[in-house]
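Memo to structure team: turn this sequence into structure tokens by end of day. - J.P.
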Amino acid sequence: MVAGRDIDDLPKNAANHTALTPLWLLDRAAVVHPTRASVVHGSRRYTWRETYQRCRRLASALSNHSIGLGCTVAVIAPNIPALYEAHFGVPMAGAVLNAVNIRLNASTIAFLLGHSSASAVMVDQEFFDLAEEALKIMAEKSRSYKPPLLVVIGDESCDPKTLKYALGKGAIEYEKFLETGDPEFAWKPPEDEWQSIALGYTSGTTASPKGVVLHHRGAYLMSLCNPIVWGISEGAIYLWTLPMFHCNGWCFTWTLAALCGTNICLRQVTAKAVYSAIANHGVTHFCAAPVVLNAIVNAPPEETILPLPRVVHVMTAGAAPPPSVLLGMSQKGFRITHTYGLSETYGPSTVCAWKPEWDSQPPETQACLNARQGVRYVCLEGLDIVDTRTMQPVPADGTTIGEIVFRGNIVMKGYLKNPKANKEAFANGWYHSGDLAVKHPDGYIEIKDRSKDIIISGGENISSVEVENILYLHPAILEASVVARPDPRWGESPCAFVTLKPGLDKSDERRLAEDILKFCRSKMPAYWVPKSVVFGPLPKTATGKVQKHLLRAKAKEMFPVMSKL
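Reply from structure team:
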């Protein structure tokens, strides 16, 4: 017998080991702060005791329909209490939650529901027509189609006729459905923390969406890691500007239970609604993509409430934020924490951790430092920038580009029913993000582009992100996105799609384009300067990411016209 080996021979037992799951966080919140407001939406206001009971009712009601382990429950809804409750109630039944992007079309939702074999569909009344069309598509495509349990969620802000229509189509109203459940339902944690808790689908910009499967362990770790990284404290008042259907709200759905905080639901996100919630609900924190921050920065005076009544903390991710937008938010009194991650990493998994020595830097320098993607989250074990050919780390010189790779407990289980994609994603023992970045001497990483978004002009690589950051400095530009367009000489050249700020004279677009190009020539290398400027709104995903694949297609289509500019 090896000396000292007995120290490792002590067995696990029910008293000292259980599967990690964020579901326990709700149980605790109901005990610690049973009467504190948990969820606020319009005239509705629930306490943590009531939310716990409602989630147990939901779990019980689902179980009564034999929906449990191995089943998927899809929820098609904006940020409303029912979607928050589903983050606990569905896994309490042993099932897997699939929070569906409400901006998808019916055919894509039909694919998601079929691919995930959804046993139940919960849908907000505003989106019932969308769900009904998706289910119709599924029925037409499959002879063996079995309709899922259909639950419609009523909302006081919606037309009551839509709810009446849904009920006439055989849907069960959500509150009636909860009444069939037991508020004292004896839910059980998963036997294995590797058990799936949530399923989310990627945007599917180049192929069918991929189903990202997450486990209880990762959700638990992220739930507790979020407040450590952000410094968000117990009792925070959190505004839901970020869609809960996006990476489960970056796991803040579960974090708010850990903090016994208050969820302020926001059905539609506008700058005016954000400022109003700050004034009327005491909001202390919210998460948002850079596109939302840009709207807040450029909101007209009549829609703002400045100076802010308190410091409001904002976490941003979803796309690389331009330094100018970060600077604008800071000047208005918001304190920005910049993070980066993917659906495959439970949401944000790196943070541009603020250093005290940056406090003495000029605001413009601070914004540039804070625009970097930073360092790994506390609960992420591995992060690096590697040469994809050799898998060797790139030097920390701030110039050598490589791919961002992840490793650890907050990396997804894998893509549902997609072994080919899993093999590629997990090659060489790392999760490959597809994002290209550099590593600075201080160890902080900075994204330069998606691998598919790099523009190769005459053999030279051009970072679309860097060109965009300069475009955002132009006083007339509200939003900018740069993609490759065909070039008869260089193969590819940059094409800038631009949205102008409100109130500008847009009658002479040629003059505006010439002014923007002149500005670019004064700020960037000649080969970076866009060959074309196209004006108009930018197509975006539900989380504010610009859909560059659509812009690339448009640039290719417009090339014969744009070459005459």
